[in-house]
Every structure is written in structure tokens, then in C-alpha cells.
């Protein structure tokens, strides 16, 4: 299972029971938390998410609606006697703030917290099953997006077609990784003729708070699901730009240019009580759009 | 109107839709916020409290469940274009944390925030209608309680009994303040004979997180309503002491010794799903007890 569950879909000022940004990405048994606005720990409880499974937390930037819930969550982990290491990837200034908060409170940690400062673009976390790549977006202060990718799965041996080809079993792992086989007589048995492609690897991109900028497209190219902020409707393009945010149409254009398979929009301004028009406008340009709704899990397929 | 509305009645780990500590004290047209746990701004919305009327915020101590909602609330005030000055009374280390959070976020304030560090015991805020006195309580880190008092109202002139006494009207203000009148012939007209006592001034004491300690009683003596924490039931006395918290019976004993008129208990541990037993145990020692329930306003009378 690879999916994203929305815990907060609103911009800075909480309104209409919409909360500041937080998302849980589930990749098999592992959970990643992206951003952690105020109230995230309550939202985790509300939507029955097993917070103990969170292994990595990614914070996009230092506006409070993206991290004011973090110190509380980290403290609560200790109150719940968490033992598993936790990796926090965030802008460097967050470390000093957390250190001050925890030293002033004399907080006792039951687990090890590893702080990894964000620094430019590139892979920031990976194991054999996934990688996470950070990339800069364009906001009033330093802000990052994240692409979470399944690792490319190896090809499968085509049992019927390989029989009689006399390829030694010891070479099968190299076939799975795409190599051709060369016989003792110099004959080339092409990889495609004896293996089958596995399902393509899926990816989720979270693009942070950003003004419209096509430079993002190269970072989120071909992703399976792109989350892009759409703080305002299309008639507020100037207002959006002045606040370093995007509109519906702009989010759609990024998805289109980047050739994303699907688009999820969120970070809605508190000036809007209802969200239908966000979907209508965005879908006009990019039909495979969904609204980020709190409590809903979007499967990445 | 003088009353306290509970926004959070739970201890550190939010549970059962109970929130960390926050209370709104209403005194006529003025609102005071005492403590500001994570989610306080959402609770203000939920219970339809006019946050723009908050003039003073008091933070008891630097454990996160008492202030992690503050940076968000202060930021939201600006997003709502607040213009009125705001007075924040809190332990000194909070200033550095807030300064870092706001400078890193490049937060633009629309109003003036006055930071007043807590420092020992004494009056920390007052005007012609109220006074707020801080006093140290006994927790794992520095922690304060607060007593909010109406200013003593002047006596009223007894129109029937003063007639014929030939006291000049210019002396009436001094009569209201309790002075006797001395006639030109040296006769004393006692204050009580020509004035009526006004309703007695009321007071609310919030006693912060504290281990059982009778030294608190002198600070909260004779208050109209005492809020005292009761984190644990009576069978957890050792556990309470080891964590610098109190039990039901201990809260009741403080109320009794201090001669409080009524007692409100809160800061319930997350280990308890239901609260009935808190009331039963506390009432056995101090019958005028109520449970602090979120969303409920307790009138101070």
C-alpha cells in the first residue's frame, strides 16, 4: 500500500474545522509525516493513525502553520514511551527552537531523535524500498518540496520463455536487473526476450508552499501523484503572487507541464468556506484533479 | 459577568477529545487567557469565544502542554488584523523561543505584543477594575499560579438614612470609601450608619501544575473559586508526588485549608477515560467541588 492521508488542508488560519498542513504518507509498513501544523497529534488520533509507525518527519518550511504541532508530537512520543529512532528532516533553524523548548521544559526523551537539516536539492533519505528527494520551491522564506519514490522494482524472469535457453541460474539476478546474456558462442540473448517488466515504480510529490514557477516541473516530472498548493481561486492571481502562493489554474499548469498522472490540491485559504470551485477550476485545465480532504487517504497507483 | 471557561482540562498527552490546559477568564468586557496548550485557537473557535477581546495572556510554566498553542494564536491575531495591544505574562525563557519562531518565519505583527517576564510573587497586572497576582507553586520546573480579583467596590450611600444628617455632598466620595464624618461640633457620624456595603469583591485563583504544598494556601486564601490541578485519583499519591502533581484529596485539602468558597479541579491524566471518580473523591473532603469540563463556563459568584 502506498498512499497519502490528509490531516490538514487549510492555509495558516484554521477555519471551518480545516486544519493547518500535515500529511501522512504510508509506504507498506512505514509512515512518513510531511509537515506538522498545530493540532497534528489530535488529528492522528481522530483518524486512528498508528503514530508509532512514523519513522521520518519532513518539514517544508518555517512558517508556523507547517510546524507548530511538532514540539507537542515529539513530546507526546516520549509520554507514550516510544523507543524507535525518529528522523527529522527540516530547515536548519528548527533545531535551535526545539532545543530551547526541550531544555527549558527539561523534557526527557525515551527515543533518539536525529535532526537532518535540509540543504539544497537531492536525496535526503532512502533504504532498499524507497527514496526521498528534497527540492527547493519558491516562497517568501526558504521552502522545500519532497518526492517520495518506491525503488524501481527488478524485472521478473519469464519462466516459459527462458526454458531451453540454457542460461545458468546464477545469472538470473543480473537478468532481473536488465542485463542481456551472452552465450559461450557469442550469441546475445536479449533481456526483453526472457524477462517481464515489473509494475512501474510509483511516486508522490509534495510541493510545499510556493508561488507559480515552472522550475518545479523538472523535480516532479512524471510523478504518479502530485500535491500542489492552491491557496486561492483563479481570480486572485495577484493576491496569490504577492503572498508567494498559487491559484487553482497555476497548480493545474504545473501538473500538466510536469506530466503528473494525478493532482491533489490543498492549502486552501480561510477566506473560502466551501471548496467545490477549487475542483471545478483546476479540473478545467487538468482533469485528473482531486481536492485534499482531511481524513481521506489517496491511494498512489 | 465574572467567570471562567475551560478550553482544555487534560494533562500533557491529549486524549478522549480532552485538550491540554487553557482557560478563558471573562471579567465584564475583558478576557484573560490562562495557559495556551496546543489547539487553543481551535478551541476558541469551537466555543465561539471572541478572541479579539483577550487583553492579557498568562502562562504558568514552560511545559509544552501549557504553551505550545501560543505561537499559533499570536500569529493568527495578525492574520486577523488585530490592532489592540496584547500583554503576555510568562516565564522569561518564553521570550527567546517566540522571538526565534517569529524572526525565522519573518512574521509581520499588526499589533503590539508586550512581554512581561514573571518574577517571584506579586501584582503583575491591574487597572481600576481588577488585579492579577502571581505566586510561585511547586513543580518540576518554575511554575506560577495567578489570582484574579475584582477591585473592592466602594460602599453605597444609604439615601434614606443620610437625609437630615447635614453631610455635605462633597464628602460623599470619602463616605463611599469608608470614612466616618465628623461634624463641626465634633460629633462622629459613623460610616456604617449612612452607607451600605456593596457586594463583596470576587476572586478566581488558578494554581498551576503543583505537588501538594500547603504554602499555596496563603496565596489563595478566601478566594471565591479556586482551580487546583488533580492529575491523579487518591490511590496514585506516590505517582503524583514523583511527577510534581496532586491528587483529588490533595486538591480538596488545599481548598479546605485556604477557605476557598468553591473548588474546580482539572489537568486530568490521560490514563483516565472517565472523570466521575475525580468528583466523588474530591467532594468527600470538599463538597463544593466541580469538574473542569471543556466548553463549560463557571460563574464566579
What class, by secondary structure content of chain A?
alpha/beta
CATH homologous superfamily title of the largest domain in chain A: Ribonuclease Z/Hydroxyacylglutathione hydrolase-like
CATH classification, class level of the largest domain in chain A: Alpha Beta
Q: Helix proportion of residues of chain A, in percent? A: 10-25%
Entry summary:
By secondary structure, chain A is of the alpha/beta class.
Your description of this structure?
The structure is a homodimer of 301-residue chains. Chain A is of the alpha/beta class. Chain A folds into 2 domains: 252 residues, Ribonuclease Z/Hydroxyacylglutathione hydrolase-like (Metallo-beta-lactamase, Chain A, 4-Layer Sandwich), CATH 3.60.15.10; 41 residues, no CATH class. The first copy, chain A, is 23% helix and 27% strand. In chain A, the strands form 4 sheets. A 7-stranded mixed β-sheet of chain A has the order 6-5-4-3-2-1-18. In chain A, strands 7-8-9-14-15-16-17 form a 7-stranded mixed β-sheet, covered by helices on one side. In chain A, strand 5, helix 3 and strand 6 form a beta-alpha-beta unit. In chain A, helix 8 runs parallel beside helix 9. Chain A starts with a strand and ends with a strand. At the A-B interface, helix 1, helix 2 and helix 3 of A face helix 1, helix 2 and helix 3 of B.
Amino acid at each position: 500500500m502506498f498512499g497519502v492521508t490528509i490531516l490538514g488542508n487549510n492555509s495558516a488560519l484554521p477555519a471551518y474545522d480545516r486544519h493547518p498542513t500535515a500529511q501522512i504518507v504510508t509506504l507498506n509498513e512505514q509512515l512518513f509525516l510531511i509537515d506538522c501544523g498545530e493540532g497534528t497529534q489530535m488529528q492522528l488520533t481522530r483518524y486512528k493513525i498508528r503514530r508509532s509507525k512514523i519513522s521520518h518527519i519532513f518539514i517544508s518550511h518555517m512558517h508556523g502553520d507547517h510546524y507548530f504541532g511538532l514540539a507537542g508530537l515529539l513530546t507526546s512520543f516520549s509520554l507514550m514511551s516510544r523507543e524507535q529512532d525518529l528522523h527529522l528532516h527540516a530547515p536548519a533553524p528548527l533545531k535551535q527552537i526545539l532545543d530551547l523548548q526541550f531544555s527549558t521544559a527539561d523534557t526527557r526523551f525515551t527515543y533518539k531523535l536525529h535532526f537532518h537539516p535540509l540543504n539544497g536539492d537531492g536525496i535526503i533519505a532512502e533504504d532498499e524500498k524507497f527514496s526521498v528527494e528534497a527540492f527547493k520551491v519558491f516562497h517568501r522564506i526558504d521552502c522545500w518540496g519532497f518526492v517520495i519514490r518506491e525503488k524501481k522494482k527488478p524485472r521478473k524472469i519469464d519462466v516459459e520463455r527462458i526454458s531451453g535457453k540454457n542460461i545458468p541460474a546464477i545469472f538470473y539476478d543480473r537478468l532481473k536487473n536488465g542485463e542481456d546474456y551472452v552465450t559461450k558462442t557469442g550469441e546475445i540473448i536479449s533481456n526483453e526476450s526472457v524477462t517481464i517488466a515489473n509494475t512501474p515504480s510509483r511516486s508522490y510529490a509534495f510541493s510545499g508552499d510556493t508561488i507559480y514557477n515552472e522550475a518545479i516541473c523538472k523535480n516532479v516530472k512524471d510523478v504518479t501523484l502530485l500535491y500542489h498548493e492552491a491557496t486561492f481561486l483563479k481570480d486572485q492571481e495577484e493576491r496569490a503572487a504577492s503572498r508567494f502562493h498559487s491559484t487553482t489554474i497555476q497548480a493545474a499548469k504545473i501538473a500538466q507541464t510536469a506530466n503528473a498522472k494525478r493532482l491533489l490540491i490543498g492549502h486552501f485559504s480561510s477566506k473560502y468556506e466551501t471548496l467545490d470551485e477549487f475542483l471545478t477550476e483546476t479540473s478545467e485545465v487538468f482533469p485528473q484533479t482531486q481536492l485534499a480532504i482531511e481524513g481521506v487517504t489517496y491511494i498512489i497507483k
